[in-house]
């Protein structure tokens, strides 16, 4: 069934929270994990990301006072993803 969806080019959308964990989930869906990234059909490189992004905070003048502070674990998670070569500059 999944291969049939892949062959039909069914659009895939990613909706996650606008935080480090949400970013990590979206990146894994779009680019695959280190364990599965090399297998055809294990990721959705054409997935479309929906929802609030960090860039939207400035664009829509959303006060950062309403956001939770990032933890050390959040910083480490994002830092690890920013060095990945597969992630486009726009998504970093």
The low-confidence parts are none
Distance between the termini: 33 Å
Structural class: mainly alpha
Using the CA coordinates, give the radius of gyration.
Answer: 15 Å
N-to-C SSE series? HEHEHH
What is the average per-residue confidence, as pLDDT, rounded to a whole number? Answer: 80
Largest sheet: 2 strands, parallel
- How many helices? The count is 4
Spatial ordering of strands, largest sheet: 1-2
Q: What oligomeric state best describes the polypeptide chains here? A: single chain
How much strand content do the residues show?
A: 5-15%
Structure, described:
- With 92 residues, this protein is mostly helical.
- The chain has one domain.
- The chain contains four helices and two strands.
- A two-stranded parallel sheet has the order 1-2.
- Helix 2 links the parallel strand 1 and strand 2.
- Helix 2 packs parallel to helix 4.
- The radius of gyration is 15 Å and the shape is globular.
List the helices and strands and how they pair.
Elements: H1 2-7, E1 13-15, H2 20-31, E2 48-50, H3 54-59, H4 72-82
Parallel strand pairs: 1-2
Short key terms for the protein model shown above:
single chain; Spo11/TopoVI_A_sf; TOPRIM_Topo6A/Spo11; 2 strands; DNA topoisomerase type II (double strand cut, ATP-hydrolyzing) activity; Spo11/TopoVI_A; Endodeoxyribonuclease; mainly alpha; globular; 92 residues; 4 helices
Please give a quick description of this structure:
The protein contains four helices and two strands; from the N terminus they run αβαβαα.
């Amino acid at each position: 069934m999944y291969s049939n969806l892949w062959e039909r080019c069914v659009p895939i959308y990613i909706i996650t929270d606008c935080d480090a964990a949400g970013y990590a989930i979206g990146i894994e869906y779009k680019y695959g994990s280190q364990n599965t990234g090399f297998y055809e059909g294990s990721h959705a490189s054409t997935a479309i990301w929906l929802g609030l992004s960090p860039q939207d905070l400035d664009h829509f003048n959303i006060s950062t006072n309403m956001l939770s502070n990032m933890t050390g674990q959040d910083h480490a998670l994002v830092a690890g993803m920013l060095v990945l070569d597969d992630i486009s500059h726009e998504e970093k």
